[in-house]
């Protein structure tokens, strides 16, 4: 048998995602801040891109903008096609015609009325104080020796985000080389720092430190924390009263005092940092109809630099390499400008479709939120589900009911006895209202909540109730019970 190599032609079809299409897809899922950063990076790399500042357009550009805008509306929600990346930016593109007819007008968006200016960006820049910084500052103000301060720095450095000490004093003594007695002397002083209860080694010690700081000591509350913390967690007040030998009312007062203590002293200096949300879409109700306005404030308005436009206009006299370089950069610039425009138009289309489906929610509130899936919007605007998913990622809408992420409007349907489905968020809202109105002495169990919802024509399983309750951080019925 003879082995040999042969070449045989084979015709196949395959999907190839061009770099331009990859860029268009990436732009869809960028947040506003990420989009601004990306545009800034492109402007640094592409000399043909420049930003138009408000009020500084030249008269000929303004005239060309007005003429073009009159012929073609900026936002045309009737039909928006998806970016396919086929044939865009080819060498056969008519650059001269582009220079003459390109529309510089940006997408419309809400502007400050009556010339009112927003606060400067510098007003929002701040560095939050960490728990470690706060404690180190207090440590430096304390009357301690240098060795004690060094030991204190080691203690502070081994606190977790909740303010608990996760390293034993023996380990700290071994690491620092200072005697164990010094660590035992410094730790109580740090535990008196603000926030009170910090540097505790467990929950019991944390609560006791705070109880000892009260102006009027409560020995019953201290005894409950020391001996019956597990019963307190389960709110088994009768058992606590029997073991401590006091009345149920006295235990209830002590439990109310303990509930006001902070179990995580470092919470105020850690965790997630609250950030202001800038909506991508504004929805207003005007004359009974909802009007959608894109928020393009802060997004640079890009055009091609006039110097390079002149070079292309005089391309026959320019050097061939220069012309090739400029054409390459112009292709990149043009595709970026068109991709940004396409991104804004797609966001508009998706927002318009959401408003159409969720009009009852906008009018009456969360209990009227309808079940909605990506496919419904995709079919409505004639786009793919993946495109809708990218558009709704980390985008926010300002509505008469508040600011919501676009993904909030997509909910699974909970079937009702009458056959009409109800959005899961609406069920959560109704569940929260029922629990708020319940008798704290006899809170509803999950099984009872199932029956209550069934009376309201909502068919839901008990395990789903439990899941929704945990998602909303609502305790179980035994933990919600208050003994009076």
Q: What does it look like?
A:
The protein is an alpha+beta fold and 484 residues long. It has three domains: 19-84 and 279-381, no CATH class; 131-269, RNA polymerase sigma-54 factor, core-binding domain (Arc Repressor Mutant, subunit A), CATH 1.10.10; 415-484, Homeodomain-like (Arc Repressor Mutant, subunit A, Orthogonal Bundle), CATH 1.10.10.60. 49% of the residues lie in helices and 7% in strands. The chain has helices at 19-28, 32-45, 59-71, 95-101, 131-141, 146-157, 169-176, 180-191, 203-212, 219-227, 229-233, 237-244, 248-259, 306-313, 320-357, 359-364, 374-381, 385-391, 424-437, 446-455, 462-471, 477-480; strands at residues 49-51, 281-286, 289-294, 302-304, 396-399, 402-405, 413-415, 421-423. It has a four-stranded mixed beta sheet, with helices on one face. A hairpin with a 5-residue loop joins strand 7 (413-415) and strand 8 (421-423). The N and C termini lie far apart (95 Å). The model is unreliable at 58-80, 83-93, 102-119 and 121-125 (pLDDT under 50).
Write the layout of secondary structure elements.
Layout: H1 19-28, H2 32-45, E1 49-51, H3 59-71, H4 95-101, H5 131-141, H6 146-157, H7 169-176, H8 180-191, H9 203-212, H10 219-227, H11 229-233, H12 237-244, H13 248-259, E2 281-286, E3 289-294, E4 302-304, H14 306-313, H15 320-357, H16 359-364, H17 374-381, H18 385-391, E5 396-399, E6 402-405, E7 413-415, E8 421-423, H19 424-437, H20 446-455, H21 462-471, H22 477-480
Parallel strand pairs: 2-5
Antiparallel strand pairs: 1-4, 2-3, 5-6, 7-8
Helix pairs in contact: 1-15, 5-6, 6-7, 6-8, 7-8, 9-10, 10-13, 12-13, 15-17, 17-18, 20-21
């Amino acid at each position: 048998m003879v082995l040999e190599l042969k070449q045989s032609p084979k015709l196949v079809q395959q999907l190839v995602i061009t770099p331009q299409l990859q860029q268009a897809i990436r732009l869809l899922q960028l947040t506003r801040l990420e989009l601004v950063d990306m545009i800034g990076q492109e402007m640094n790399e592409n000399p043909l891109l420049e930003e138009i500042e408000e009020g500084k357009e030249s008269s000929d550009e303004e005239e060309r903008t007005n003429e073009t805008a009159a012929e073609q509306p900026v936002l045309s929600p009737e039909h928006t096609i998806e970016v396919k990346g086929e044939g865009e930016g080819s060498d056969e593109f008519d650059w001269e015609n582009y220079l003459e007819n390109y529309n510089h007008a940006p997408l419309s968006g809400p502007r400050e009325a009556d010339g009112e200016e927003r606060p400067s960006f510098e007003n929002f820049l701040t560095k939050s104080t960490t728990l470690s910084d706060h404690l180190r500052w207090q440590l430096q103000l304390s009357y301690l020796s240098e060795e004690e301060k060094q030991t204190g720095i080691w203690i502070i450095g081994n606190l977790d985000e909740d303010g608990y000490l996760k390293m034993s004093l023996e380990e700290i003594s071994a690491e620092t080389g200072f005697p164990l007695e010094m660590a035992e002397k410094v730790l109580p002083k740090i535990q008196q720092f603000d926030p009170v209860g910090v540097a505790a080694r467990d929950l019991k010690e944390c609560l006791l430190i705070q109880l000892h700081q009260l102006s009027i000591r409560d020995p019953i509350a201290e005894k409950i924390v020391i001996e019956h913390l597990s019963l307190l967690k389960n709110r088994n007040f009768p058992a606590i009263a029997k073991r401590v030998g006091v009345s149920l009312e006295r235990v209830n007062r002590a439990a109310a005092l303990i509930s006001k203590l902070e179990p995580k002293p470092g919470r105020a200096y850690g965790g997630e940092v609250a950030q202001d949300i800038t909506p991508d879409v504004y929805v207003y109700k005007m004359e009974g109809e909802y009007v959608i306005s894109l928020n393009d404030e802060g997004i640079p308005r890009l055009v091609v630099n006039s110097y390079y436009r002149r070079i292309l206009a005089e391309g026959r006299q320019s050097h061939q390499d220069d012309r090739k370089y400029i054409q390459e950069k112009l292709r990149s610039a043009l595709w970026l400008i068109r991709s940004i425009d396409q991104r804004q138009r797609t966001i508009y289309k998706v927002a318009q479709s959401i408003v159409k489906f969720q009009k009852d929610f906008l009018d009456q509130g969360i209990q009227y939120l309808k079940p909605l899936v990506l496919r419904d919007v995709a079919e409505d605007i004639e786009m793919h589900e993946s495109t809708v998913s990218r558009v709704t990622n980390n985008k926010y809408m300002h509505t008469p009911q508040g600011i919501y992420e676009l993904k909030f409007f997509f909910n699974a349907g909970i079937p009702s006895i009458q056959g009409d489905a109800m959005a899961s968020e609406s069920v959560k809202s109704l569940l929260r209202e029922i629990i708020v109105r319940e008798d704290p002495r006899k809170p509803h169990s999950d099984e009872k909540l199932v029956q209550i919802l069934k009376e309201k024509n909502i068919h839901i399983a008990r395990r789903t109730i439990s899941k929704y309750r945990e998602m909303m951080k609502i305790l179980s019925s035994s933990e919600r019970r208050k003994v009076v």
